[in-house]
Design goal:
With 240 residues, the chain is α/β, with parallel strands linked by helices. It has a single domain (2-22, 65-239), classed as Nucleotidyltransferase, domain 5. 37% of the residues lie in helices and 18% in strands. It contains nine helices and six strands; from the N terminus they run H-E-H-H-E-E-H-E-H-E-H-H-H-H-E. It has helices spanning 2-5, 31-44, 52-55, 95-109, 126-136, 160-165, 175-181, 196-201, 206-227; strands at residues 12-21, 66-79, 82-91, 116-119, 157-159, 238-239. A six-stranded mixed sheet has the order 5-4-1-2-3-6. Strand 2 (66-79) and strand 3 form a beta hairpin. The chain starts with a helix and ends with a strand. The model has no long low-confidence stretch (mean pLDDT 93).
Length: 240
């Protein structure tokens, strides 16, 4: 945990994304994309009953077949000895617009090399997914996201799941479980990740998904503070 001892929370940008399938259903795919998904589905199916149609609900987790609908981020501030956490979201149905807005924010405020991301499982999911979708949408990667070619010790990124692993790379601990272990309120008190697709495509309730995404980054921020042996930021000091 040496990385945490010298970590200045004011240099951390906590971040989380929410994704959905590129189309509402398998039937909405073009013939070209049906063939591409069929091949993907054949590689991920776990039993004979699995079909490309039944597996399409999992398309959201693959950047080639999904899209980003919400990016939430938050920053710590210290005022008169008390910690605050301010949250901002970039959300919408037009992926290219929200990704460009997020990239513009990073380029404007976080391009001096003084800041680092904090995510939960972001090394494996959020960061690669964002980079790939930005390239698909012809958006130049901000320097804070462009980690290709960097050595592991050069990557300025904190992952609370990696911190919790303590080198045990076969382990996976969800944010909800880690929050429970550390006595932090669950971010899954309304919906969880498995419900995002149906809430988006069936209920058309993007605001509900954004609220869920915001809860995730507040929880991640509190987990980080707990791992630093600090008192987590209070509800009153969270600025949404």
């Amino acid at each position: 945990m040496r990385i945490l001892e010298d970590l200045d929370l004011k240099s951390v940008l906590v971040m989380d994304i929410e994704t959905v399938s590129g189309q509402k259903s398998y039937e909405d795919l073009s013939d070209k994309w049906k063939l591409l998904w069929n091949k993907k589905a054949s590689n991920i199916k776990s039993n004979e009953e699995d079909t490309p149609e039944s597996l399409y609900s999992r398309a959201a987790i693959y950047s080639e077949f999904g899209k980003v609908i919400s990016i939430c981020c938050g920053m710590f501030t210290l005022k008169e000895g008390e910690w605050f956490f301010k949250v901002k979201d970039f959300s919408g149905h037009d992926e290219s617009v929200l990704l460009q807005d997020f990239a513009d924010m990073l380029n404007k405020h976080f391009s001096n090399g003084m800041y680092r991301f904090c995510t939960h499982n972001g090394r494996e999911f959020d960061i690669p997914y964002l980079c790939r979708r930005m390239l698909v949408n012809r958006i130049k990667l901000p320097s804070m996201l462009d980690m290709s070619g960097l050595k592991p010790w050069e990557v300025q990124h904190i992952d609370t799941m990696d911190l919790w692993k303590f080198g045990d790379y076969k382990a996976y601990t969800s944010l909800n479980l880690l929050a429970a272990l550390l006595d932090i309120p669950s971010p899954k008190d309304d919906i969880d990740g498995s419900m995002v697709g149906s809430v988006y495509w069936e209920e058309n309730d993007l605001e509900r998904i954004v609220a869920y995404c915001k809860k995730d980054i507040v929880t991640t921020a509190r987990v980080l503070m707990k791992l630093k042996m600090m008192k987590p930021v209070s509800d009153e000091n969270v600025i949404l």
